[in-house]
Automatic annotation (TrEMBL):
Its EC number is 3.2.2.n1. Belongs to the LOG family. It comes from Paenibacillus terreus. The keyword Chaperone does not apply. InterPro entries: LOG, LOG_fam. It comes from the Bacteria. Transmembrane segments: none annotated. It is an enzyme of class 3 (hydrolase). Keywords: Cytokinin biosynthesis, Hydrolase. This is Cytokinin riboside 5'-monophosphate phosphoribohydrolase.
Length: 193
């Protein structure tokens, strides 16, 4: 694993722990000799991770759609900024560049990016590790929803193995580095009867 894509909120959140742990993740990315790939913003948890990596001498590639966001949101101090035409190209570019994915707390955009990475792993488009940085139990309701999907028959229990869930940055990256793509039950339950 050489490049890690981080999905994170463009807001800081209401708890200081989110910022502290976002910075810890940036420190661990540098300590592990990884390059950060992310959405290119200088605000929110996204900015916290990127700024920490840059301050510690690490490499950061941002991917930003042209003209989508206000100019002051684009991080101007990145190692590399890739401008794309739209959000679809942004996600595709980040996915192509990255060897793994981590979701920090965030909103709709972060949820959508996380679930796309998980879905693409589930159907075999990629076999990269997908980490959930569960700071202050932020993702507990979402994880409960995933378990509900299993209980109600929309997912197989083995698909939980596509997620690496941790509450500390060092633990998360250590587990991602040793990730082995799991043996999954057939996604389409009707086809396995």
């Amino acid at each position: 694993m050489k490049k890690i894509c981080v999905y994170a909120g463009s807001n800081l959140g209401e708890e200081m722990e989110f910022q502290i742990h976002a910075r810890h993740l940036g420190e661990e990315i540098v300590r592990n000799g990884l390059e950060l790939v992310y959405g290119g913003s200088n605000v929110g948890l996204m900015g916290e991770v990127a700024n920490t990596v840059l301050e510690l001498g690490g490499a950061v590639t941002g991917v930003m759609p042209k003209g989508l966001f206000a100019g002051e949101m684009v991080h101007t101090g990145l190692s590399k900024l890739i401008e794309v035409e739209n959000m679809h190209q942004r996600k595709a570019t980040m996915s192509e560049l990255a060897d793994g994915f981590i979701a920090l707390p965030g909103g709709y955009g972060t949820f959508e990016e996380l679930f796309e990475a998980l879905c693409w792993s589930q159907i075999g488009i990629h076999k990269k590790p997908v980490g959930i940085f569960n700071i202050n139990e932020y993702y507990e309701p979402l994880l409960e929803m995933v378990h509900q999907g299993i209980r109600k028959g929309f997912m197989n229990p083995s698909h939980l193995d596509l997620m690496i869930i941790a509450t500390e940055a060092a633990d998360l990256l250590d587990r991602m580095k040793t990730y082995q793509y799991p043996e999954l039950e057939n996604k389409w339950k009707q086809m396995s009867r």
